[in-house]
Amino acid sequence: MRKDVQLLLVETVDNLGIVGDVVKVRAGYARNYLLPRGLATTPDESLIASLAEKRKQAEVEQGKLRVEREALIKRLEGVEITMQRACNDLGLLYGSVTQQDISGALKSLGFEVKPREVRLPQVIKRLGQFEVNVKLASDLEEHVQVHVVPDRELEGDEREEMEFDNEGNLIEKPEKPAKAEAPAEEAAPAAE
Prior knowledge:
By secondary structure, the chain is α+β, with helices and mostly antiparallel strands. Helices cover 28% and strands 27% of the residues.
């Protein structure tokens, strides 16, 4: 029971259209978002004509925005971000790396990227290297490398691996001799 309605946009709406566009949207979207905020109204020829000047300005602004986004995409090529996170000894993060985290890191490097423009392929919850997509428009996107590193030195697994023969019996390894301290006479050169 999907019902669509036609509306005239009186303001530019992201991912929908610019001022003066007549768009078809779902009734709920129109009723709950566009109409209460004054972003759209019912289409009328006189209203469309009165919005012509505002539409020209919006088209110029969209053109400028497009040029800025294309320049940003070119600058993003080959960018790598390193993020330190708290984790356990297995490399699992106590939290996760979010779109906001990546957007903030890019902003600190001088790239104006909104969190919704960062597209994570999966939730980042472990240490490692990840390829994250930054999509500014339907045809403008670039991949950014995100390195997630621990905030401390991780304790390695010091245990030796056990080896078994073909019959499943444990292979005994000879004990490694403990490092014997060199006698004091050998350690210090003789003074003559």
